[in-house]
Amino acid sequence: MLVCAGFEVSRLVTDTQNTFQALVRALNQAVVGQPLLAERLTIGLLAGGHVLIEGAPGLAKTRAVKSLASLVDASFKRIQFTPDLLPSDISGTEIYRPGEASFEFQRGPIFNQLILADEINRAPAKVQSALLEAMAEQQVSVGNSTYPLPDPFMVVATQNPIEHEGTYDLPHAQLDRFLLQVKVDFPGVADENRILELSRLEGRNNVVHENGALLSPEVIALAQSETDSVYMSAAVQEYMIQLVVATRNAALYEMGGAIAADIEYGVSPRATIALDRCSRARAWLNARDYVTPDDVQALVHDCLRHRLVLSLPAQSRGKTTDTVLDELLSMVPVV
Ligand SMILES: Nc1ncnc2c1ncn2[C@@H]1O[C@H](COP(=O)(O)OP(=O)(O)OP(=O)(O)O)[C@@H](O)[C@H]1O
Ligand SMILES: [Mg+2]
Q1: 7-220 belongs to CATH 3.40.50.300
Q2: At a CB cut-off of 8 Å and minimum separation 6, what does 220 contact?
């Protein structure tokens, strides 16, 4: 049980958990057949981090984030990234007021609580870094002034991995700022039928799937603090750290060094922190007050895949970071 679990407190915790479970269900109703996406967006919100969604066009990436925005009582802005976007289109501009002979800062769309950075890889590096700086520091600096961003502050970015023309890949240092990178895949036959039915229903009624806000900023803050107090045993922590260390020195865990040769750079401590926060959030969402090795294993790919850099020979053989992570999971002994 949770520390100081008096009757009032445990009732409150249960209510908050119920609300978050209702959020996951509502997201799953709006976006058919993508349960991981619904869970990961919720974990991102609980862990106070940013999420990058990667998937082919038309897989409901934008729809998922818009649904999240409709369920959370927070200010929301969608920023469509295009090649001609400027950094000031995100952060804001200083405007000269001749009457007062002074400059006034006009806040850009980043000054919202939930941001959808749609097709982030369509804008050049300068614009991407304006966004990523705001994400890392939760503040915007213009001229000599610094402006804090609101709380909660969550960026969900989308990118399409199959189009390369006219796109600008996010550099690894910037990818590292995303707590999670979630991949969405094509739906199966049954889900395709359900998507069609939903789309016809919405078309007939001329409505988009709307639920009304479920989560207030206070409930989110309460859930975040409950997530922070989820217990991780020394053994589970050791397992998590061994997994991270294995990305840097796989030779410690294998015979022959084949996997070590596939990895150019392992992951940073930011990855350990991400794995820790997300595992706690998953445990809390599943109504547990302790983390299991299952939580860590379930999140290894989404927390680490975008931070791991493979060697050129491994990339040319078509190896992916997901395959390497599978191999590391099978090598590192579970506590
Ligand atoms: N799993 C799904 N559940 C419900 N609707 C879906 C699903 N997949 C696709 N759709 C429908 O397909 C359309 C495309 O969705 P959306 O615009 O969110 O895709 P996207 O992944 O953002 O695409 P793009 O990469 O081109 O921006 C929407 O009309 C959406 O309602
Ligand atoms: Mg989209």
Answers
A1: yes
A2: 45, 72, 74, 152
Q: What span, in angstroms and rounded, lies between the C-alpha atoms of 263 and 304?
A: 13
Q: Which CATH number among 3.30.450.20, 3.40.367.20, 1.10.8.80, 3.30.200.20 corresponds to the domain 231-331?
A: 1.10.8.80
The two structure tokens encoding residue 287:
């109504």
Atom of ligand 1 nearest to the CA of 59: 21
**Position in ligand 1 atom list of the atom nearest CA 53:** 21
By the CB criterion, residues less than 5 angstroms from ion ligand 2 are 62
Residue-level pLDDT, tens digit, the chain, 335 residues: 344 433 334 434 468 999 999 999 999 999 999 999 999 999 999 999 999 999 999 999 999 999 999 999 989 999 999 999 999 999 999 889 898 888 889 999 999 999 999 999 998 888 988 888 899 889 998 888 899 999 889 999 999 887 777 788 888 888 999 999 999 999 999 999 999 999 998 887 765 555 567 889 899 999 999 999 999 999 999 999 999 999 999 988 888 888 999 999 999 999 999 999 999 999 999 999 999 999 999 999 999 999 999 999 999 999 999 999 999 999 999 97
Identify the residues whose C-beta falls under 6 Å from ligand 1: 31-34, 55, 57-63, 158, 160, 187, 195, 198-199
Instruction: Tell me how far the alpha carbon of residue 121 lies from the centroid of ligand 2, in angstroms.
Output: 12
* Distance from residue 56's CA to the centre of ligand 2 (Å): 9
pTM value? Answer: 0.90
* Angle at which helices 7-30 and 35-47 cross, to 10°: 140
Residue ranges of domains in the chain: 7-220, 231-331
